[in-house]
Amino acid sequence: MKIIITENQLKTLMESIEPSSVKGSLIKLGIPNSVIDSFGSPMEGSWVVRVKTNNPWPMDTLSISYPALDDELTNPDVTKVRVKIGKKEFNTTLDDATKQVSSKYKELKVLSEMDYRNLDDVIKFGEFSEHFKKEDLKKINKFLLLIRKLGVVNMLQAGDFFLMSIQYFKDFMKMKSYERDFDEDIVSEIEEMIPHISSIMINAGMSLVEKNNTEVTPKSVERAIKILVSSIMKYYMTQNLPNVNESYDKEKNFLKDNFGFDFSGKIKQITSSYDVPWVFDSCLSPASITLYLNRLGPIYLFELDGTKYLYQDRGEFEWFMSDNCNEYVENEIPEKLGIAEMGFSFSDILNMYFEEGED
Question: In this structure, are residues 161 and 194 in contact, taking their beta carbons and an 8 Å threshold?
């Protein structure tokens, strides 16, 4: 049976659930006022109360909102609100909503503050890359390279840094600074990356737990992260990384020693169609080159195994064209260079070789 109510009755019913009272209930349940935001009001016909966390998407925000999912103005259910926890959305009573959000917030807080410094011995090595985005693997690779360059620990101990807090890292470096001086720029860069690496690892840990159809709890995620950290470190230590105590001023030395190539002075930036070698004339017209430069950014020219290539970073993918007019957009060139498995993209190569204005 469909119940028809007047606009004034609807307004009265909607005002029976105030976002301010929802916020008050969450505070009573132990959620700090500083992480709670509210938008809208009963007078406007809808509202949302959000709880911010320090966890990666999709668990970065929890929310309670009104009206509930799929409610119709002609048949409202003012006893229900909509709850969003991660990717999951559902209707429930206000009392249950505040309890579920509070419980999940506390659980996530434990995860974000967990002490992972004392990692277990190496756990069984397994496939880990599927639990990380490509960009995340690149960040992890960069993070490990910075730790190696800093030279504060042996690389066998580098895994301890993955979920280290900024404050602990500062205290650790302060203690180590009494032994010798360290590169302050590298220290600052590692410090800046620490929160991002922690979030990446927590997110990957959740992914591994969910894949194994295990309940997401602080304990299950902690174990998953230990497995991932151990797997990552075993992978990197079997890739013939140079000893942590060896001094490298440029990442390009690392690539030369480990992958056998050196692009020093061999990459040229294209600033106009006149810079493109004639061998590309049958592939691209001057007008196309100008269009690519104006709309998509810089183009670079390099040579690999006797073949000339044009390269452009197009955001969602990297574009290459060989001098025989073949286009590559599926990571073929980084794989040919052998850097893809380490999380490098060709843009990383450019950053290394053009950071000093080389052209």
Answer: yes
Coil, helix or strand at residue 42: helix
Check if the beta carbon of residue 37 is closer than 8 Å to that of residue 60.
no
Residue 244's closest CA among 339, 155, 353, 131? 155
Q: What is the mean pLDDT of residues 293-299?
A: 84
CA distance 168 to 118: 13
Sign, CA dihedral 106-90-211-208, equals negative
For the chain, what is the radius of gyration of the CA atoms?
Answer: 27
Q: 41 has which bridge partners?
A: 46
User: From CA 266, how far away is CA 339, in angstroms rounded?
Assistant: 18
Please state which of the ranges 57-71, 137-151, 187-201, 289-303 shows the lowest mean pLDDT. Answer: 57-71
Give the model confidence (pLDDT) of 128-161 as tens digits.
667 777 778 778 888 888 888 888 876 657 778 8
Coil, strand or helix at 292? helix
Note the pLDDT of residue 205.
Answer: 87
Q: How far is CA 192 from CA 52, 166, 196, 200, in A?
A: 21, 8, 8, 14
Would you state the structure tokens that stand for residue 251, as one six-digit string? 């990442």
> Rounded to 10 degrees, what is the CA torsion of 68, 69, 72, 77?
-40
Burial 251-277 (b: 16+ CB within 10 A, else e): bbbbbeeeeebebeeebbebeebeebe
Are the beta carbons of 230 and 116 closer than 8 angstroms? no
**Domain boundaries of the chain, sorted by first residue:** 7-112, 129-247, 258-354
